[in-house]
Structures are given as C-alpha cells and as structure tokens.
Automatic annotation (TrEMBL):
All residue ranges annotated as the D-glucuronyl C5-epimerase C-terminal domain in the record: 141-321
Single GO molecular function: heparosan-N-sulfate-glucuronate 5-epimerase activity
Record protein name field: D-glucuronyl C5-epimerase C-terminal domain-containing protein
GO terms for cellular component: Golgi apparatus
Pfam families hit by this protein: C5-epim_C
GO biological process per UniProt: heparan sulfate proteoglycan biosynthetic process; heparin proteoglycan biosynthetic process
Protein's organism: Adineta steineri
InterPro entries, sorted: C5-epim_C, C5-epimerase
C-alpha cells in the first residue's frame, strides 16, 4: 500500500488518514522518506497507542500510550518493523496483534512524506536491499574501494595499539561485495560489477585490511591495527571476508582472487588450532590478541561461538564439491565447536 501526505498552508498537521484494512502487526513493515522538521504519527485503534517518527523536536510529553522515535538527518529514509518498535517502546506485549491504523503528518508547509509503504516482510526486505545497495554505490571511495570507517576505537590495556584512521574493515568490504554480487545478478549492470571489484581490491592489493600471523600467514582483519604484524586476528571477521571473496570470484573469476582464497585457507589450516580454548573444552576464541598483544584470552561469547560454527558450516558446504580436503578441515572444527554446546 502506498500513501502520500502533504500539509495544507497554515495547517500544522494533515488530516488523519485511516487505513481501510486491518493489519497484522507481527508481519507488517513500513518504509518511507520523511523531510526535515516533520513527524509521522501512527495511531492504533485496538491497542489505543500512538507511535511517532520525528525529525523535529516534539514538545509533547511521552505517555504510556504515546511514544516518540527521534530520527536524525533529513531527508531521512526509514525502514522499520512496527511490532518491534511498539513492544520495545511500550515495554509490553501487545494484547491485539491485529489492529486498525490511522496516519497523520505534522510539521510545516515544507513537510512531506514520500512513498509511505506499509507491507509484509518480503516488501520490507526488498526495500532494505535496494536502500542498502544504493548507499553502498553512492558512498564507496573510488580510489581505494573502501567504505572508510571514521569511528575511533582504543584498546584500554594496549594504548600503543591503534586502528588505522580512517580504517577499512575486511569484513565490511566483503559483506558489501556479497550484497553487490546479488544486485549485479539482478541488473547485469557493469557499474555494479566495477563496484564489486573495487570492494575486493583492498583485500588483495594492499595491507589496508591485512595482517600477518608470525610474519607469514596472511589474515583479513575486521579491525586493522596500524601494525600489520600485531593484528587482532578476529576469527569471524576473516571468515566473513573469505565468503565475500568467494562470492565475488564466483561471478567475476580472477586468478589473483583464487590465489588469495588459497592463501587464507592455508592460514586457517595453520591458525584454527589457536582458536580452540585452552581451558574450556572445544570452546572457540574471538581473536588471538592473547598471543599478539599478550592480553588475557578473549573467549567467544555464546552468540559468537554459534557464529563461528555457522560460518564454518557454510565454508564446509562451499568446498564440499570442489575441494574435499578443505571441506574436511572446516568439518573438523564444526564438529569440535558444536560438541561444546551439546
């Protein structure tokens, strides 16, 4: 369903627009772009609550039945799962999962909401996919291929170790490449292919995202520190990066990418034993900072332990038909890490 709202002159709010059909909140997503100094109001009849998305300062007080979600930037594109917003803000489970909704736009004469869409998860996923790929295409550094990150991160116990500033994450680059691979498969647009090539470039052509364990084994760093020999060697970051390179090489084969994949496999074969916890049977480690920075052992949290298992399962499946020995390598650690949670 698509809706358009515009305010009439000398009126701070539009009239309420009631959606004709009852919506099922557990499967309803919204997408819209809202201008500055504007607020979009959703009133739910059965639950008697109002949810407000706003790019302006609202002087109304929040109550038990009225909640305000502040939006930064304008125009601001919004993709939201309504049920999560409501239940998080209300701190309670809704009594009515089906509800009727009316909508109102408030602001000034320049306020508008473009292409408000209320739909199911498939529609939301499509909007999120195209929104993310559009951002990636518009914000990539054309010289390096990076989506540079300007957030500073310091290591309290190791003040002499710093992330490069700005820094380029191998994991982020590869995940972006994987998303663009899927866009290219839909569009066959050469510009999208060039963006994929640029995204992968920092992983093979320079040390922007690389570190070397024992000065020998190449690693793709999620958090690249200034010293390539004193890396963190985050496990999930390198595994995500490897999958992204494989994705890119599948649709745009290059010998140098195949060579990098082989180098990472050799590194994993040598380094995976270091990620097995020395005190907790078959538990995984998040990184190898206890070796490279002489810090305490950084055990993977339960959620990251599951991520490690899932990524290794994925790689096991990828290599199952093409390289049985590599597939068996990943299978060994899948079984080992899985045994810790059974």
């Amino acid at each position: 369903m698509y809706y358009y709202f515009y305010l009439e002159e000398n009126n701070h709010c539009s009239s309420w627009h009631r959606i004709k059909d009852e919506i099922f909140l557990s499967n309803t997503y919204i997408h819209f772009t809202i201008s500055s100094n504007s607020s979009l109001h959703f009133h739910f009849f059965n639950n008697d609550i109002e949810l407000i998305y706003s790019t302006k300062t609202i002087h109304d007080l929040e109550t038990l039945t009225k909640k305000i979600i502040s939006l930064k930037g304008s125009p601001r594109q919004v993709n939201r799962y309504m049920l999560i917003d409501i239940e998080k803000l209300m701190r309670k489970t809704l009594f009515f999962r089906r509800d009727f909704v009316k909508i109102q736009l408030c602001g000034d004469t320049q306020s508008s909401v473009d292409q408000l869409i209320i739909g199911n998860q498939t529609l939301y996923d499509q909007q999120a996919f195209y929104s993310a790929t559009r951002w990636l295409l518009n914000n990539q550094d054309l010289q390096t291929g990076c989506w540079f990150i300007h957030v500073q991160r310091n290591y309290v116990h190791h003040p002499h170790y710093h992330l490069r500033n700005p820094w380029c994450s191998a994991m982020a680059q590869s995940q972006a490449a994987s998303l663009l691979v899927r866009l290219y498969s839909l569009t066959n647009n050469k510009e999208h292919l060039l963006a994929i090539r640029r995204a992968i470039q920092p992983l093979w052509s320079s040390n922007l995202t690389r570190a070397y364990f024992n000065n020998r084994f190449v690693w793709l760093e999620e958090y690249p520190v200034e010293s390539a020999t004193k890396g963190l060697f985050v496990l999930n970051g390198c595994l995500y990066a490897l999958i992204g390179i494989i994705d890119a090489n599948t649709i745009d084969y290059e010998p140098y990418l195949s060579d990098l994949i082989n180098q990472i496999i050799i590194s994993l074969e040598h380094m995976l034993p270091y990620y097995v916890h020395s005190h907790i049977s078959n538990w995984s480690l998040y990184d190898l900072s206890h070796i490279t920075m002489k810090s305490k052992i950084n055990s993977a949290s339960y959620s990251y332990h599951l991520v490690h298992i899932t990524l290794l399962q994925c790689l096991r499946q990828i290599f199952k038909k093409t390289n049985d020995s590599v597939s068996q390598l990943f299978d060994f650690y899948v079984e080992r890490f899985t045994s810790a949670i059974l």
